[in-house]
Amino acid sequence: MRIKLPNKDSAGVVTTFYVIEKGNHTYCKQMYLQMVLVIEKKEFNFGLIQQQTFMSTQSYGIHITLCNFFVDEMPIRVYKNKSHRGIGYPTQPMQSEATIWNGESWATENGSEKINWSNSPFIAQFQGFNIEGCPSNNNSLNCNSTKLGWNSKKLTHNQEKSYKDIRSKNMIYDYCKDTNRFQNIPLECSSDY
């Protein structure tokens, strides 16, 4: 899947794409909150906020592979399967959803900047949607086999380096370090995710 965000000044316009288990809250979700010069990416599955200093409005620069998210070929979010540690990971039939909506009351620093409606319409484009996976009626244990390509695919050395660099330079909030919010560190924070 490749995503092209609305161009022009689209601060307050929220574009999302996610895959979610029906009837469950396990999902891989990306939400792009568009600012004048910055994409702010919020992930409600893990509570991270990162500011990206690159835009994907001129080309299809955002793409998703195996619940990993890339912008301009750089990994910005990696969801590792840590279900053996009790950390949620998709295992049931899933559906994909994409939305574009008005988030001006909260998406621009609590509504400090309103949507410039003279720049509408705001159009997000999604291209190259393709799914590989186990049939939903299949035994989920077989879906975890290392013989299946998606279970053994990992970031290359250069992608791993780029991912760590992007996180260290662009992440502005990490709920794993928010001791005011959590007395005990959430389980998924205890290891590199």
From TrEMBL:
Reactions the enzyme catalyzes: breaks a beta-(1->4) bond in the backbone of a xyloglucan and transfers the xyloglucanyl segment on to O-4 of the non-reducing terminal glucose residue of an acceptor, which can be a xyloglucan or an oligosaccharide of xyloglucan
Superkingdom: Eukaryota
Family annotation (InterPro entries): Beta-glucanase-like, Beta-glucanase/XTH, ConA-like_dom_sf, XET_C
EC class of the enzyme, as a word: transferase
GO cellular component: apoplast
One MF annotation (Gene Ontology) recorded for this entry: hydrolase activity, hydrolyzing O-glycosyl compounds
GH16 domain residues: 67-118
Keyword field: Glycosidase, Hydrolase, Transferase
PANTHER family: XYLOGLUCAN ENDOTRANSGLUCOSYLASE/HYDROLASE PROTEIN 8-RELATED
Protein name per Swiss-Prot or TrEMBL: xyloglucan:xyloglucosyl transferase
Protein's organism: Solanum commersonii
